[in-house]
Amino acid sequence: MLQNGQRRALEDVGGGRWVKKIYHQTSCINMALIYLDTNVYLDYWEARSDKLRPLGEFAYSVLRRSLECEFVILISDLVLTELRSSIEDAEIKAVLSSLKENNKLVV
């Protein structure tokens, strides 16, 4: 069920593929609502990389793009529980609070 200020849309991503997106009305114009897996947050906090890519930089880019009004991040209780097993609560709150204060995080 969509909340007040949200709308659904299908976006053509090429190759005959379509992606369902939910747009959330915030202080910026309508933005896509995205869900990030726990590993994206861990990549950011631990500045992880694999043999080919700087995963921590990619994760930071996603968080920065959210603050720049490109999209809103959806976070679940499961992700928060998984993060708490690896990261202190104070660190989690420090990063997520700036997103939440700017209406870029839906919990």
What order do the strands of the largest sheet run in, or round the barrel if closed? 1-2-3-4-5
Output the number of helix runs: 4
Which shape, going by the Cα principal axes? globular
What are the secondary-structure elements, in order, as H or E? EEEHHEHHE
Largest sheet: 5 strands, mixed
- Give the N-terminus to C-terminus distance in angstroms: 15 Å
Mean pLDDT: 77
Structural class: alpha/beta
Strand content is 25-35%
Low-confidence stretches: none
Q: What's the β-strand tally?
A: 5
* Helix content bin: 40-55%
Write down the Rg. Answer: 15 Å
Quaternary structure of the protein:
single chain
Describe this structure in words.
The chain has a five-stranded mixed β-sheet. The chain has a domain of 74 residues. The protein is an alpha/beta fold and 107 residues long. The radius of gyration is 15 Å and the shape is globular. Strand 1 and strand 2 form a beta hairpin.
